[in-house]
Each structure stands twice: as structure tokens, then as C-alpha cells.
Amino acid sequence: MINSNLKEKYWDSATDKQMVISVVGTNQKIDNSMLEIGTFALEESLCSESELKFGACEANCVKFTARNTAGNIIGKTISIEETIDGDAENPMPYGVFKVASDVPTADRTKRQITAYDAMYDIINTDVKSWYAGLSFPMTLKQFRNSFFAYLGIAQVETSLANDSMTVNKTIVATQTDDSSVVTEESAISGKTVITAICEINGCFGNINREGKFEYVFLKAITSALYPAEDLFPSDNLFPSDANTESMTGHYITFDYEDFKSKAITQLEIKTSEDNAGAIVGTAGNNYSITGNFLVSDKTGAELEQIANNLLTVMKQAAYTPIKSCTCVGNPCLTLGEPIRFNTTREIVETYLLQRTLTGVQSKRDSISAQGTQTHSAKVNSIRDTIESVQRRTSKLERNADHLQSTYEDLEEQTNTKFEQTTKSISAEVNRAQKAEGQLDASLELKLGRDENDQVISMINASADQIMLRGNRLVVESNNFMLDKDGRVTIIDSLNFNSTALGDNLTIIGLDGRGRPMLQNMRVDLGSVTDQDGVAIGDHASTADHATTADSATTAESARQCIMASTAHYLQGIGLSDYVRISDNGNLIPSSSSVYCGTTPNPFAGGYSSGGWKTTSDRRKKKDFRKLLEDDRFERFFELLQPMEYRLIENDDKMHIGFVAQDVEQAMKCCDISENEFYGLEHAEFSEKDFESNEEWEKFLEQNGGANDMYTLCYQEFIALNTAMIQKLQNRCSDFEQRLSALERSVSHAENL
User: What CATH class does 618-721 carry?
Assistant: First the structure.
């Protein structure tokens, strides 16, 4: 509860409320007279998930439309307060926000403003440099204090359940001055860090009305005994020890679930899905935490202590989920606060988890608190945010068909794995790809001894060699066979790769005529010479199936030809799609799934004498909907900002168009998703999207280290422009008709 003295005044709709929005660092203020009626909205959220997820940290938002402002304030900080009944000494704080959007209305008389609190910056900040500069080990309290000091955000002083826990380096975050160097983690988001901190302490993160980060706990709801129905509603009969805020008499509509979210009875913490981790408590409503990087190096005993500390805090949360509720708006109510509803049938006790507070003088609150009766096993995993690299971790995975033991060490950059099934036993030792030094490890398996206790079969493996020893070696597989007499059968093809200059291919065994016989032998370009040393295959004049014949004159069927200058087909090796040149000179793809260029590797430009055509046959389309019937797109059209700009890679000429991020912001303002408008694409990429690591590194360097890219499909805007023109035409036609009628009326009056 904030300023409980004002609570009762807010319940009274007749109370005078004067809101003041101050632009920090300026004299600019926005008051009631400047606010467009019905546009002010404060959106606060502790957890918007359908299932309660401890550790959630969500940004609060304020939206309003104002007139007679001093200009664009995007990027500036605003502070919001409200004076009640003229008491300027005790204002109601609404919070501190940074303006993310300031868009003028079509008539330019008003501005639509959207702002977020400091949580928005926390969850979107790359904190890799901060993490790389830390000196481990440290306590969790030292870790979080350092984190907020780096961000420049104050915390509400509090003690957390696992503040004394030791934090080690569990994420590889190498810092480098060379932007072209790809490090182990390209980015570590602030969301990853703060979510992990709150999760391992059984709380939620929120920026309070004073602009400080606050750790919010769901305290146990204290239920009280209520009088008989014939005594209701005498307020003085209710026990005073209930810790819930009564909403009775203040709500207008109320809909809640027909169940109660049960208290957590058992807590499981696992460093990964395959790790047994630690389990405390009793079976019933089980809650699982998986992949939290702060505990990825912990032993089973350490995890158990952490879990015991955590369960004490988390088990208090039990409530009835709220589907929806509309009530009198009261900003004194805060996120996480226990509230109760005395309905005609029962008493409903819950928490304030989400709210949208609208209006100024006549306020309304839209409240919800989602939840499930019990928790699912995999609800809490932050591995979608970051893949934790474990400092020292042992994992044991076991079931009826499989036993696997894995040990990883971040310091040594090594990992070992032993796997046993009903059909096989395997072991491996690996060093990280970029680690220096030789890995010295070996495995020896003795398979049997004869009557003299002599080894008759043995498998020996070391870091640089593998030895198979026995009286007789037999290998049977689908592609390779070695029988008991030493005869080798190789299916499909035989490839020889030289390890040093001067290595020779020796063929043992001849056919019936004394000739070496090789079938389906793969030969690289220029690697085979005749008796005179002339390369064979470099200029194959009749290479109908040449794979690397750069001058094949008759290679009409060379569908995998890489450099055949006259080949009719272009195809990547191993791909089913290809492009061919038809007899009439058309470049034809094998299917409609073949693209020309990609988002990260586009063509610089193109020319066409006849224009580019797009498939638009009605028979190829479905789910039709007239654009004129969707008012969101008219608003979206108004928010579009045509710009003049130069390209960084070609600054000779000016271009006109849109900025994809501006289009994205306009779509968000109009509640239009990327699935509803193909004109914008925001794609993320990884190494697998590129042909080589060099291309991937080049892309990152040219893109400022980011792994994403925005693109626009301008042809999608044509129909939007057409729709807006049609709307304008309809309005003009209406105006013309009204004008014509008015002229006739005037003319008739003049005649009279």
C-alpha cells in the first residue's frame, strides 16, 4: 500500500484529483487541462505469464495523449504525481518513466506519448562487459549490488533468502577491444541476470513509484473468520488480523477461476534438464527451477541448502486466480498486495499481479491475476535467455535403457562423457575448439583372455591414436565390412585424403587381368595426372557429369557443376533445389522455395526491363479480409514516417523510404503483429545461416556485433496506400455531395 492515508479518498469518485507530469530537467509540465480525456493509462505488471513464474521482471508503462505541449520529448524522463484535494504537501507518486514514443496526431494538435520505467532499460541492456570485469567468487548480495551500481539504479534495501550464497563465474564472457573477434557469448542481457537473481530468491522484480528496484514477495494471505450472512455487511465485525485489502463495494465486474492455486509443497533445482539436482519438501504441488546460471556450478548438497532457503519463501503463495475485474481505480494499491472480494457466494482472496489504471478524475482499474491449480514441471527455465557454460559440473542421467555420465570443467575447457546402453558402451574426452595444449586422456577395454591368461582382444584409445588388437578383427556394417580372412568391402565410394606432401596411394590387389580396379572414386580438380604429368579433369571437353570442370563444353546434364561455364543448371552440392536456364533464355527455379539472395546477404540491386512480377492468383490465396474494415491500419498509416537517407555502404545518392524500426514501433502502437503485416521482418541469425564462419564473422562486424536484421517488403505498402487513398476518395465524395446539397439549399434560399 502506498500512502494509505489517501486510500479512502481515492475510493470516493468526488475527490478532486490534479495530475502533474513533469519533464525532468526542464520547466515543462503537463496538467489535467492538457491531458486528453480518457487517454491516461498506467500499466503495471508483476507477472503476466499464464502460470505464476517466480523471477519475472516486467516493465511498467504509462500512456497518455496531451495537447499544447512544447514539442517532442522522446528519450526524456518524466515524473508523474497527483495532488488530492489540494494537498500539495502529500502528493500521490505514479513513478518515473522514460519516453519511448512521442507521436503527433494527424491534425498535429495533440501528441500521443508512451513511456516505460527503468525495468525496460534493465532487461534490454547488454551487461557482458560488466560480467567480464567481475572478480569471482563473491556473495550473491555483492553480485546484485555490483549489477545495480553498474546500471546506476538504486535498490530498495532488503535481505534475500540466498544473499549469502557464493557466486562463481559460470558464463564465458570474454572482453576484447577488437570488435571483429567473436567471443563465447556475444551478449548477456540484463534480463538474464536480474531474472536469475529474483528466481533463486523466490521473488519478483519491480520498479516502484519512487523509481527504485524493489524485490516483491508474495506473502502468505491471512484469512480470517467472517460473521454469519445475517450479520453482513457490518464492517466492524470483520477481524482486524486479516492482511488482505477489501475490494467489497469497489468492484464493478468480477470473474475468477473455479479453483485455488495451491501452495508449493516441493521445490526442485536442476542445473540442466538432464541433471538430477536437488529436491526438497513433500510431493504435491511441485515447482521446478532449471538452468539458472547462478547455481550451475553447485553440488547436490549446495543446491539442497539453496532450495530449503527458497522453499520457505515460495510456499507462502496460494491464491484464487482472477480472470478479469473492473473496479474503482485506486493507485494506492500496489503490485503483489493481497486483496479480497466478498461475493454473494464466497470470499475470494488473491494477489494484485496485473493492472491497468485509466482515467484521472474518474479512475478505473482493470485487475487480473493469472495462475494454475498446480505448477507444471518445466514452467521455470531461463535457458531460452542464455545457455549457461558450467564451471565444474557433473551430470548423471539414468533410465531403463540408458546410463550417461558427463563431467565438464570451464577452467580446463574439457568435458568427458561415458554412455552405456543395452547394445553399446562408449566414452569420449573433448577439449573446447579454441583451447590450447594437447589433451592427454586414454581409454582401455580388455575384452578377453585365453587359457594362458593372455589378452586376445583389446581396444586402446589415447589422445593421438586408437589401437585395435586381437587375433582376428571382423567389422560388419551397412557401408563397410572386414571379414575374418582380411577382405575389405566398401559400399558406394572410396575417398583418400593426403596428410602430407608426397603421400602415395598404394593399391593392394588386382583384378583377373592384373589391373587395379576402383569404382566410384572421387577425384578433386587437377589432383590426377597422366604419365606425362598433365592434369586430368581440369578441362574436360565431354564431362556430362563433371562436378568441377570449369570449361566443360558439353556438360548439359551436370546438375552439380560448380564452375562449368556452359552448364544449364546451377545447384549447390547436396541440395535438391536448383536454377536452370531454359532454351528461351529464362532463369527458372526448380520450385517456389528458391530465393534470390537472403536477408543477411542481399543483392546490391537489380535491373529489369519488364518489371518484377509477383504471384497474385486468387487460387493461391485464402483468408481474405478487406483492409478498409480494419481501423488499425488507418492509424498505422498515419504513424508511418517517410524519411530521406543515405546507405552506409553507398553514400553517393539519397534514398526515400521508411526505417524498419520506426515501422515496427508504429505496428506496436496499433497492435499489429508481424503475422498480420508481411511488410516488416525482424530476423535473428546464427552461424548455421552462413556458408562459413568467415561469412558469419563478417556479417557480425558489418552489423555492429548484432545477430539480427530488419527488412521491409515495400510492395506490401502499395495496397495500404491504395486503401488510404480510397478512404480519402470516399470522404471527398461525401464532402462533395454535402457541398452540392448545401449549394442547392443556398440557391433555393436566394431564389426565395
Answer: mainly alpha
